[in-house]
Amino acid sequence: MRLPRPLASLRALLHPEGFHGAGRRGRFFEGWYHKLVGPDGASLALIPGWFQGEDENRRFGFLMVFDGSAETVQIVRFPAAEFDATTDRYDLRLGSSRFTAERLELDVDTPQLRLRGAIDCTNTHPWPVTLRAPGVMGWYGYVPLMQCWHGIVSLDHGLRGDLEIDGRTIALDGGRGYTEKDWGSSFPDAWVWLQANDPTTCVTASVATIPWAFGRTFAGFLVGVLHRGQLYRFTTYTGARIELLEVDSARVRWVLKSRTHRLEIEALRGSAEVLLPAPDLNDMLAKVPESLGVTITARLLTRDGQTIASLESDTGALEVMGDISRLRRLLKLS
User: CA gyration radius for the chain?
Assistant: First the structure.
């Protein structure tokens, strides 16, 4: 049964993990980002998704494979008829492969990529969804004029299984995973994004220059720490603020405060950057620099200085994109 448009829109808002492109016209993209880290530190990002350009005939599914160990990225495109996804949960099919929050089944055999295997994602931790705050974006999820929306499917989960890429086996059994997604008409103008897990803690953090209605722009941030099952939020809509954001060629230093907690993050930029394809007018073009295997440290404290959690990971992910000086100005940091 087809739901009335207002109810269908509400259902989509309350299921950020689902597909938001059904019935969309004009430019649109949607991608799910699976970060997989094996027990030996081998890291991999799998990004299935959908792209449609300004030319309505320019539509296709895609799968990006970012191999952190080999420092390579490959993208396989699928005809629109080979893409299928549900709107009320994460269940996506690309050709012979299937992706859900709990399981990845890979079967790709093309001249540029052979990828096979199955990965179970155990004990997932989605960002909570409520009517007041439908996911990580909070009430911003209700704003219709955004160019890009963000969702977190699972902050942290265990991995069970292995993958074979071009004849090479990547052992993921016993590793850790993280899954997020983006959708909309275009990426932000500039951003810093990082993510890392250790056995007890996950940190995910993004801050971006966001185009707004009527030519306006603002800076927003979405930061979460999951520690032993408890989520600590540092976001624009919860009233948190950024005290420090320093980005240079060697590191990213980032300090945030909420009403009750303080978060200190440092990421070292020593790992090689690979350009990931991102949506453009009528194609996916290599333009987003990302590093896997980044050393990230974080410390979560109470406002009176007591340490709640410390994270240290050398399998983090980091992106620094666009005019960071302008981003800092919008944050009133300079």
Answer: 19
